[in-house]
Amino acid sequence: MSASDSALPEELWRQILEIGIESSNFNYKDLCCLSITCTLLNRLSSDDSLWSSLFSADFPQYQPPSSSCSVSSKWLYKIRYEKVREQKLLAHRRAVLRIQSEINEHSRRIGEMELRSKEEKGKMKNTVAELLNLRKIRQAKVALNVWQPEIVRGKQKQMVEQCNVPIDNRIHAIEMELKLCKQQIQGLEKALSVEKKRMQTAKEKLASVEYHPLREFNSRVSPIDEHDMRRKRFKNFIK
């Protein structure tokens, strides 16, 4: 049964709509939905006073339409609604670009850290190989002081003679260098892990912002409904 066929008088329906707007229980979507139910509610929900109150509630930072204004409050609401929506979409695009820029920066840093880590690991590999070789030479030097077969002794003597630096000092320096390499790699891996987490957080934030382009809209206006049918109803209603 429509409102036109109900036992409630027109004035009571008008008061219901006014109370709904004043108590913030009704928004522009509710008025649009009511307008397509019957002729009576279509006429009542088009009342300028309702849309003027809704304008003041949804856009408190803007001057509400005056009673002497020749343009209907519904039309002014539509214009302001579309402007605010466009501003929100522009802010959303800027937010997306900013987050994408952050992701690119994180990606660049990760690439640099991975390259440095690879270089340090290569350096550590060479250092370990040199350290093992020096330890073999030191063992050969010690072995020269005991009796050995001449063939073995000749090889060990050759190894010792090919080393032109003090073995113990060089081993100590290599061990310090190896320790430094390990510290560098650990620091890079820790920083790399933190940077990857930051990039993942930025990606999740980007996905959320892209999925909810108007979520941060701090107005009383409900998020824009992109459904084609509702948009058509709204446009047809405020014409």
Report the β-strand fraction as a percent range: under 5%
Report the end-to-end length measured between terminal Cα atoms: 26 Å
Q: How many helices?
A: 8
Radius of gyration: 39 Å
Major sheet: none
Average pLDDT metric: 78
Subunit organisation of the chains: single chain
The strand count comes to 0
Helix/strand-derived class?
mainly alpha
Could you state the order of secondary-structure elements as H and E?
Answer: HHHHHHHH
| Percentage of residues assigned to helices | over 70%
Point out poorly predicted stretches. Answer: 216-235
Shape, per Cα inertia axes: rod-shaped
Word description of this protein:
The chain is mainly alpha-helical. It is rod-shaped, with a radius of gyration of 39 Å. It contains eight helices and no strands. It has a domain at 87-211. The model is unreliable at 216-235 (pLDDT under 50). It has helices at 10-22, 28-35, 39-44, 48-58, 73-143, 150-162, 167-211, 228-238. Helix 1 packs parallel to helix 4, helix 5 crosses helix 6 and helix 5 (73-143) runs antiparallel to helix 7. The relative contact order is 0.11.
